[in-house]
Every structure is written in structure tokens, then in C-alpha cells.
């Protein structure tokens, strides 16, 4: 499985219709909603905003798509097929269309939406997927710097710190690296 770590954007014009695509890392349906709302706000006069996403959850991979008013299976499904074909997860692709006055037919629409999504994916940076885990740790003040350095070395991130008698740290790091933190517990 793979994901992206850099967004991609693409644009093409086919028979006077303008297609613009964005691809972004989204690890929840909430993130997908925010991403799509941002596109819709930037392009309020677009005729269609079709999308597809695949998100990995504890229950498995959730695939979803929307044709956004285009004929059934001509917009969202070709975008989803691009994601599935590359085994991408935690990725959403949104493609807007400004109608140019020429009907493309169902085959033409599928090729246009899928092709524009493919161009955006080619512009993105695709990387191997690493399962991440969030942990909450409580450490002494004198351990905080060492913990922060270790989390960075393990390709993780400190998400939050709360200070009282001790330091409560919320971190996110690759699942295989979680065992390395046992010395801090």
C-alpha cells in the first residue's frame, strides 16, 4: 500500500470543458469533507465537483466516490479506479468541471475525469504507507527533551504537551517504533 506526502494538482481542457484536479492526503472522512469544501469555496461557479477517496480504518479500507450530478459511473468511479489501481490509501482526489458547451458522452466523461485524476496523482509525491499509532505518555520534565529527540528519530511527531506535576505528551509514530518508547514508561 502507498499514500502521498505531497499534494498534486492538474488541469486539462477537453472539448471546451475545463477539468481541474487536486489530490491530498486525508486520513478520515472529516478530513475529506474539509478538503472538498476548500475546493468548492475556491471554485463556486464550477458545474461539478466529483471525487473519490480510500481511507484505512481499523475495520478495513473505506472506498467512496461521487459523480456529482454527472451520469452514473462517469466521474467518481473512474477517479476511484485510479486510486485502487495504484493501491493508494488515505488519499482523496477531487475533480471539478467547468462545462464548455460540448457533451462528451459517457465514455468521454469517464476518460476526462479519470485522466485528470491520473495527472494530479502523477504530480503528487507517492510514498510507502506506514501505519501510525497515537500514544499518550507521562514523563518527568527532565525526560522531555530526550523523548522529543527519540520521537523525531523514530519518524514520529509530538502532537500535544500538557504541563502539571509531570508532562503529558501525545505523540504519533509508526507502529513498529512504538516498542522503542517502552523505556519511557
Secondary structure topology:
Elements: E1 2-6, E2 8-14, E3 17-25, H1 29-42, E4 48-57, E5 60-66, H2 76-85, E6 91-98, H3 105-123, E7 125-128, E8 132-139, H4 144-153, E9 157-163, E10 167-174
Antiparallel strand pairs: 1-7, 2-3, 3-6, 4-5, 4-6, 8-10, 9-10
Helix pairs in contact: 2-3
Secondary-structure element order, N to C: EEEHEEHEHEEHEE
Q: Please, what is the CATH homologous superfamily of the largest domain? A: Impact, N-terminal domain
- Average pLDDT: 90
CATH topology of the largest domain: Ribosomal Protein S5, domain 2
**Main sheet strand line-up:** 2-3-6-4-5
| Total domain modules | 2
Largest sheet: 5 strands, antiparallel
Total of DSSP H or I helical runs spanning 4+ residues:
4
End-to-end CA span? 32 Å
* Structural class determined from secondary elements: alpha+beta
Helix content: 25-40%
How many DSSP E strands? 10
What is the class of the largest domain in the CATH system?
A: Alpha Beta
Q: Point out poorly predicted stretches.
A: none
Proportion in β-strands: 35-45%
Q: How big is the Rg?
A: 21 Å
The CATH architecture of the largest domain can be given as 2-Layer Sandwich
Write down the overall geometry. elongated
Question: How would you describe this protein?
Answer:
The chain has 185 residues and is of the alpha+beta class. The chain folds into two domains: 2-128, 2-Layer Sandwich (Ribosomal Protein S5, domain 2), CATH 3.30.230; 132-184. The chain has four helices and ten strands; from the N terminus they run E-E-E-H-E-E-H-E-H-E-E-H-E-E. A five-stranded antiparallel β-sheet has the order 2-3-6-4-5, sandwiched between helices. A three-stranded antiparallel β-sheet has the order 8-10-9, with helices on one face. The chain has a two-stranded antiparallel ribbon with strand order 1-7. The longest helix has 19 residues, at 105-123. The two termini are 32 Å apart.
Amino acid at each position: 500500500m502507498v499514500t502521498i506526502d505531497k499534494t498534486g494538482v492538474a488541469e486539462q481542457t477537453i472539448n471546451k470543458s475545463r477539468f481541474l484536479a487536486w489530490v491530498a492526503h486525508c486520513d478520515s472522512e472529516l478530513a475529506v469533507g474539509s478538503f472538498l469544501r476548500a475546493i468548492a469555496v475556491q471554485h463556486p461557479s464550477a458545474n461539478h465537483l466529483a471525487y473519490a477517496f480510500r481511507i484505512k480504518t481499523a475495520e478495513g479500507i473505506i472506498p467512496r466516490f461521487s459523480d456529482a450530478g454527472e451520469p452514473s459511473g462517469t466521474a467518481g468511479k473512474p477517479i476511484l479506479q485510479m486510486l485502487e489501481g495504484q493501491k493508494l490509501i488515505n488519499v482523496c482526489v477531487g475533480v471539478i468541471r467547468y462545462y464548455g458547451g460540448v457533451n462528451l458522452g459517457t465514455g468521454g466523461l469517464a476518460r476526462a475525469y479519470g485522466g485528470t485524476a491520473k495527472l494530479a496523482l502523477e504530480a503528487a509525491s507517492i510514498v510507502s504507507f506506514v501505519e501510525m499509532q497515537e500514544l499518550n505518555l507521562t514523563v518527568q520534565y527532565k525526560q522531555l527533551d530526550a523523548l522529543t529527540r527519540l520521537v523525531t528519530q523514530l519518524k514520529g511527531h509530538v502532537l500535544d504537551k500538557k504541563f502539571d506535576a509531570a508532562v503529558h505528551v501525545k505523540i504519533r509514530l509508526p507502529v513498529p517504533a512504538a516498542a522503542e518508547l517502552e523505556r519511557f514508561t
